[in-house]
Amino acid sequence: MDSNTSSEKRATLQPRRAAGRQRVAELLAAASGLMAERGYEATTMAEIAARAGAKIGSLYRFFPDKEAVAEALLQQHIAVLHEEYEALAKRAADLSPEELADVLIDLMAELYPRIRSLPALMEARTDRTEIRDRSRGQALAGISAALRVCAPGLEERAAGDIAAVVLNNMKVMLGMTLKDAPTTPGAPDELRRMNRLYLSSRLAPCRGTKAGIS
Predict the structure, then answer these.
(1) Keyword Methyltransferase, does the record have it (predicted)?
(2) What is the pLDDT of residues 89-106, one digit of tens each?
């Protein structure tokens, strides 16, 4: 998928009415499911319309081509992640380290149904490395912010290191959920326990303190 949009290409239509917004949401949901299952290249506009229960003309009315659909999906997924991490940072002040650990370890798996085509979309982009780095940086910044809200005495550098460990744990949990990573029936609970113990040991000494741990 070319990441550059031609200046001659018709712009994506932004519906103003609720019915139009609902139709676009249905079309994007259908596209997300197909691209997650089959990949960007194998998905066709006709299949997207069919899965959404819409006429092909309705799809083309809002999106001039498949690239426009993918771009809208990508921006939607990025916005979802941004909103979730912002909301998490606001909640973190009222969470114990153990509670925050539980929220974080399951966050990626819980968000997956809403962003499931993100890997396929990034893989199809010519600028996928840049987008992947930006997405990873957004996740690390969001987790780090939540850690520091939960434990105000935690130093910024330490928060970044801990966030990297937690993000990897979140990815492992997602892999277990999707059966893409080695797992057993009890393994997810063991991972939650490990994450809880880790964050408790790192954050508890910094709650209500001014000096962080190194």
Answers:
(1) no
(2) 999 999 999 999 999 999
